[in-house]
Write a structure and sequence with these properties.
The complex is a heterodimer of chains A (92) and B (147).
Chain A: H1 28-41, H2 49-56, H3 64-79, E1 83-85
Helix pairs in contact in A: 1-2
Chain B: E1 11-18, E2 21-29, H1 37-60, E3 69-73, H2 76-83, H3 100-106, E4 110-114, H4 123-126, H5 131-140, E5 143-145
Parallel strand pairs in B: 3-4
Antiparallel strand pairs in B: 1-2
The chains are: A mainly alpha (92), B alpha+beta (147).
Amino acid sequence: MNEAKIMATPMHPSSNLDKDEKGKDVSDKEYRGMIGSLLYLTASRPDIVFAVGLCAHFQTAPKESHLTAVKRIFRYLVGTTDLGLWYSILWC
Amino acid sequence: MPETKLKRKSTSGTRQFLGNALISWLCRKQNTIALSTTEAEYVSASNCCSQVLWIRNQLEDFSIRYKNIPILCDNTSAINLSKNPIQHSRSKHIEIKHHFIRDHVNKKEIELIFVDTKNQLVDIFTKPLVEDCFNFIKEKLHIIHKP
């Protein structure tokens, strides 16, 4: 994943994820693992909360289209590893 | 807040600032189906209100007292609904619990202020955004690269 093409946003602006019942199944164990790690990360990265939350809806029956969406979040994260919330001492 | 096709429920997004610092945020699918955008906004304003009141109570322990805490909302009719107890046909069904925001507006503990969509920072929690908008909000929330 380190060599993946970097994305500027965690989610496509016009993405329209749905259940995608006809899509190809992917391993739900793996999918849940990814969502779990991402949910943990949302504690310090509010910018991905929405994308992760939406992908988390599909944990019961993850399809290839959902996995692609999750991978996009990772591609966004690869390019923004040094991002964080900033609290200035000047604000006190 | 936009509704997802999934079950047609809207997403509530709220974030609370203390001064300039982002101290709390929430992104959650609403548990009722909203019939209008006003209703969806009203429900999220009410969610936000409860969080704000909690923070207010916490700060009281440190002798920091706030009055008229502003809540920014991008829907004028939702704001009017919180000020004016008129029941009309489009809002009469909204669950009573969400009207508790009115009570607190009356007591001048909080106030609802209009903000245009461009400066509505919670959009990052409720919809996928284009790059420019996304980066603009990120900066406003002080999510920045390590200096």
